[in-house]
Amino acid sequence: MRGRILCLLLVASWLPIAIAFGQKWNVQYFYDESHARLELTGLAFPSAERGIAIGAIHEEGEGKKPQNVALVTSDGGTHWSLVPLKEYPRSVFFLNDSLGWMVTANGIWFTEESGRSWQKIGDQIKPNKKLGSQLAGGLILRVWFLDPKHGFAAGFQKSAFETHDGGHTWAPLEEAAKPPSNPAYSLYTQIGFADGRFGMMVGGYAPPRGGGEADLPAWMEPERALRRREVPSLTLLMQTRDSGAHWTSSTAPLLGTLMSLSLNGMHGLSVFGYADSFEVPSEVYHLDLSTGGSASSFKQKDRRVTDSALFPGPRAFLAAVEPPGRLYSTPVPGKVRILTSTDFKTWIEMNVDYKAVASSVVLAGPDADHLWAATDTGMILQLAPGGIGP
After folding, report:
1. Residue 144 dihedral angles phi and psi, to the nearest 5°
2. Which fold has domain 13-385?
3. Which tens digits make up the pLDDT trace of 150-183?
4. Residue 264 region, left (φ>0) first, then alpha (ψ -120 to 50), else beta?
5. Interatomic CA distance for residues 131 and 126, integer angstroms
6. pLDDT in tens, 268-324
7. Which residues contact 302 (CB under 8 A, 6 or more apart)?
8. What is the pTM of this model?
9. Which end of the chain has fewer beta carbons closer than 10 Å to its terminal beta carbon, N or C?
10. Cβ count near 30 (within 10 Å)
């Protein structure tokens, strides 16, 4: 009996490693055009067959305007079609294979054709004493729908909204404005539901730090960036346990900027990015949704995590970049690194195509066996069976 138990423990301890080395991330698509680059910033895969990546093509030359585009596939990424978009896409959300919503800087768009065509829908805010009658599109950063009619939105000016008509009209959630912070520098950046009832909106309050040279990109002032201290900022949190019928807001002083939020079942992952002077470029926290507790799950000096994905099991994935130098925020792409875990403690590096480089990576997929990654360097990678080695 003792030997059988020992054998089972050994199998359990090696399972994450066996899973990680049994799969490989291959470059499935690469936008390889001279004098132009494709920056992909959003990704959705509601099924193993249909997916969409959003972003913009930047051409070399003075006065060249970015071309807003989407990449769509209906065969699991074997073939991709480039679809022009009329406005710059901020984010995209799909409820199923067909129905999707895209947030742009000027409004909200809707598709019934898996992203192959889009229709701009009314985004009028219902009459409100504070906001009056205006458009929500410019404020909204992300949306999440529970069904074709009922959805929520998070965005700038400490604002959050609810719709019951598929996104045509939005009603402000007054609870979102309650945290004591200046709306001009407050926003909700992430939204997600673990199931049909428990959901979260998370953001932060980040006032300017003095302007001038302090606000220049780190790569323009590397020595100043390395000396700049990471200071706590106010994290804004909204939670619901009844499908959005009631929301409660709270705040907490935390270091860093929230970059990603993933919820599934009783678990969650939040990714925070840090300033160049900090000891690590990012930190991932495991959220226990049953107790409300959180604990540091992953941080490493040479891994800057930019996104996460979470599935039943649990099975978790982290998309990261290996910074090519001392600055975490350098615009020079680094090697793409993807890690996986089944216990939020032991993270195993997966086999990633050596050609994959990026400054930022996003993940999407319907389950742990069908997963894709999109980069800001115009690449889409697919998780596929593979072996150990490069």
Report:
1. -145, 130
2. Methylamine Dehydrogenase; Chain H (2.130.10)
3. 999 999 999 999 999 999 989 999 999 999 888 8
4. beta
5. 9
6. 999 999 887 788 999 999 999 988 899 999 999 999 999 999 999 999 999 999 988
7. 322, 323
8. 0.86
9. N
10. 16
